[in-house]
Amino acid sequence: MKSIAMTIAALTLATASFSALAATEVQSAPAGAQTIGTISASSNGNLTTLQSKLNAKATEAGATSYRIIGASGENHLYGTAELYK
Description:
- This protein is an alpha+beta fold.
- The chain has one domain (2-84): 2-Layer Sandwich (Dodecin subunit-like).
- Helices cover 40% and strands 32% of the residues.
- It has two helices and four strands, in the order αββαββ.
- It has a four-stranded mixed sheet, with helices on one face.
């Protein structure tokens, strides 16, 4: 029973640590944040898939937050985001 509790605690901590590292989508530039660049992504899916790809790229680039500054397309979507740290 004790090992199950420890496993659950470890999984909870690992999940919390990962989500703390993920970039957050914002609607405007955060106060005091510095722009560190831009990224782009494309998707054959829907807007949610495009947002997920932009989030993954922002996190990979070390951004703490990102703002989608453009998205277009019909069957194939393209998006651009500005990164902040």
